[in-house]
Amino acid sequence: MTGTKLWRNPCAAVGALYTRFAGKRTFSRICYSLAVIAIIYNLYESAELRKALDDRPQLKLETVTQQTEPDFQNWSDHDDITIQRNGTEKATMVMLVRNREIREALASMRSVEDRFNKNFHYPWTFLNDKPFTKEFIEYTTGMASGPVEYAVISEECWSMPSSINVTLAKHGMVEMSNQRIIYGGSLSYRHMCRFNSGFFYNMEIMKKYDCDPFTFMRTNDKVYGFVITMYEFEATIKTLWARTKEFILGNPQFLAANNSLGFLVDGSEASAAGDTEIVGNYNLCHFWSNFEIASLNFYRGEAYTKYFEFLDSTGGFYYERWGDAPVHSLGVGLFLPKDKVHHFADIGYSHPPASRCPQDDKSHTSGRCLCNRSNNFDTNGYSCLPKWWDIAGVNQGAKRPE
Ligand SMILES: Nc1nc2c(ncn2[C@@H]2O[C@H](COP(=O)(O)OP(=O)(O)O)[C@@H](O)[C@H]2O)c(=O)[nH]1
Ligand SMILES: [Mg+2]
C-alpha cells in the first residue's frame, strides 16, 4: 500500500506517539512465542517521564544485532531453516491492553521473554485507548528485553462511526445482553474488535513494521500463523457470512486460488481458481486472533482493506458484535492460498478458556515447554484444527487423536 493511500486513512494518520525503550504484552502462559496483536497511539508529554525513560539503560536493537553468537535456543522443529537471530526481522510484539491489566500483561511478557525474546530482543508495542500510566510504562519497560513503544489510539479508531444508528446499535446490545451472549452488551468490546479488525496495522507506530513477519514466516513464505482455532458464537456474527459472500460477489478477483474455503465451509468445493461465488454456509471456524503472527502487508493490501471497509460500512461491528478473529480469518481464508497460512504446532498457548500444548518430545525435552501435553485443545470437540488438518495436513509437532 502506498504512503499516500495510507495517509488517506484517517486512522493511519494518528500521528503522535512517544517512542521509548521498554517492553510488554498480554497473553497467558505461552510456551514460547512471538507476535500478537494490538494498536496504539499515545503521548507522554511529561518531560519528567521522558527524562526518566531517557535515563534508563537502553538496549537498542542495533547493538543487539551486532552480537555474533547469542544464547540461542532452538525453538523450532524446522532445523533446516536458517533462523536469523537477534530480532532482525521487522517485527514487533503488539499488545492492546488497559492500564488496569498491568499484572496480566507483565505475566504474559515474562512468559514470552523467558522462552523466546530474551534471545531476540524484539520490540514491544503497547496500544491503549487511554494514555498509559507512568506505572504501566515503568514496569513493562523494565520487563522488556528490547525496545518498547507506547501509543494511544485515536478516538476516530475507537468509537462508533457517525454512520452508525446509535438507537439501533443500543437495541442490539440490550438484546444480546439479555440473551447473555458473551460481551453482547459491551460497547468497548465492539470498539476493540473493530479496531483489531481494521486499524491496528495502519497506525503510525506500526509503520516501521511494514515488511517482514518473523523469520520462520519469511523463510517459509508464510503470511499468517495461528495456534488455536475454534468455533465462533453464531449469535455474534449473524450476517457476517452473508456480507462476506456479497463482498466476494462484487470482488471475485480477491478470492485466492487454492484458498481455505474447505476449512471455513464444510463440504465446500469452491476452492478452485476462477471461482467467483462462494456457496455453502460458514461453519464458524476461525483462527483465534488473541495469538496470531501476521504480515501487516496482508492487512494493508487491497483485498483485506476493501473487505474491512465494506464490512465496516454495513455497521455489523456495532449492530451485531463481530469479532476481529472471524473477520481476520475470513479475510485470510479467502484472500490467501492456504499454503500461506501456518499452524504453529510447536507453540503452546493458553488464553481462557482454551490451552494447547505442543505434542512433540523436543518442545518438552528442550526445556522450552512446561505445559501438560494432555491439556491440549487441538483435539477438543470445539477445536477446528481437525478441519484445518483436513485441508492443510498435520504439521510437525501436532498429533491427531489415536
Ligand atoms: N486499551 C483497551 N484494551 C482493551 C479494551 N477492551 C479489550 N482490550 C484488550 O483487547 C484484548 C482482547 O480483549 P479481551 O477482553 O481479552 O477479549 P477476548 O480475548 O476476546 O475475551 C486484550 O488484550 C484486552 O486487554 C479496552 O476497552 N481498552
Ligand atoms: Mg483476551
Strand order of the largest sheet: 1-4-3-2
Number of strands: 11
Shape, please?
globular
Number of helices: 16
What structural category characterises the helix and strand content? alpha/beta
Instruction: Estimate the strand proportion.
Output: 5-15%
Radius of gyration: 21 Å
**In angstroms, what separates the terminal alpha carbons?**
46 Å
Q: What is the percent of helical residues? A: 25-40%
Bound molecules: guanosine-5'-diphosphate, magnesium ion
Biggest sheet layout: 4 strands, mixed
- Helix-strand string: HEHHEHEHEHHHEEHHEEHHHHEEEHH
Low-confidence runs: 1-85
Chain-averaged pLDDT:
77
GO molecular function: glycosyltransferase activity
Keywords: Glycosyltransferase, Transferase
Protein name: Mannosyltransferase
Organism: Discina gigas
Task: Describe the fold and architecture.
The chain is α/β, with parallel strands linked by helices. Helix content is 34%, strand content 9%. It is built from 16 helices and 11 strands. The protein has helices at 3-8, 47-55, 61-65, 102-115, 134-143, 166-178, 187-198, 215-219, 240-250, 261-264, 296-300, 302-314, 316-319, 324-335, 361-365, 385-392; strands at residues 18-20, 93-96, 124-128, 148-152, 224-226, 229-231, 285-287, 292-294, 341-343, 349-351, 354-356. It has a 4-stranded mixed sheet, with helices on one face. A 3-stranded mixed sheet has the order 8-5-9. The model is unreliable at 1-85 (pLDDT under 50). Bound molecules: guanosine-5'-diphosphate (GDP) and magnesium ion.
